[in-house]
Amino acid sequence: MLAQTNFGGNLTIAGVPVYKSLQPPSRRAGADGSCMLVVATDAPLDARDLRRLAARAVFGLARTGSSYSNGSGDFAIAFSTSADVRSRFGETAPRAHPLLPTDAVSPLFEAALEATEEAVYNYLLQATTVRSSIGTAEAIPIDRLRELIKGARP
Q1: Is 74 assigned a catalytic role?
Q2: What is the separation, in whole angstroms, between the first and last Cα of the chain?
Q3: Which residues contact 26 (CB under 8 A, 6 or more apart)?
Q4: Cα-atom radius of gyration of the chain, to the nearest Å?
Q5: Nearest Cα to 23, choosing from 34, 33, 9?
Q6: Of 32, 34, 42, 84, which residue is the catalytic one?
Q7: Whose CB has fewer CB within 10 Å in the chain, the N or C terminal residue?
Q8: Separation of alpha carbons 71 and 89, rounded Å
Q9: Is 72 annotated as catalytic?
Q10: What is the pLDDT of residues 120-133, one digit of tens each?
Q11: Is 34 a catalytic residue?
Q12: Which sign does the torsion angle of CA 118, 67, 77, 45 carry?
């Protein structure tokens, strides 16, 4: 999973609405932006199932609190590196392609959701505070975040 993230919303991590404590009210929900997601798999999937896999990756953004606002233009692509499904240059004769059965794709959908969620968290937790002539964007205080998540667990 490769994610370029630029979106607003109410940050949620591991189901914990951390935005309530970490995000200033003036910065909550409604911010426009777009995310681009690239999903790679070595599973032998055809174009139909790759399209479905990409769609599930976008759903993973919701787990992080994405607001999908009016200006949001999120999209994802997916591809397979499986040698079994590759087209070969100059090949004209039909041949059988071993494909993962449709009912076996569900675990990949879950993996795409989890990978998207993890990629967004990795992106956010690697960010540093940025200062410019128009203001400051503070990095997420990781120690405080740990406390919030730890305190929310039963």
Answers
A1: yes
A2: 30
A3: none
A4: 19
A5: 9
A6: 34
A7: C
A8: 41
A9: yes
A10: 999 999 999 999 99
A11: yes
A12: positive
Cα dist from 84 to 9, 44, 80, 129, 148, whole Å: 40, 7, 10, 46, 46
- Assign 32 a pLDDT band (cuts: 50, 70, 90): low
What is the three-class DSSP state of 41? strand
Q: 63-122: per-residue pLDDT in tens? A: 998 877 777 778 899 999 999 888 889 989 888 888 999 899 999 999 999 999 999 999
Beta-carbon count within 10 A of 129 CB: 10
Predicted TM-score of the model (pTM): 0.84
Contact (CB, 8 A) for 37 and 57: yes
pLDDT band at 37 (very low <50, low <70, confident <90, very high): very high
Tell me, what's the pLDDT at 25?
A: 65
6: Cα separation from own chain's centroid: 11
**3-state secondary structure (DSSP) of residue 31:** coil
Which of 21, 69, 74, 82 is catalytic? The answer is 74
CB 6 within 8 A of CB 34: yes
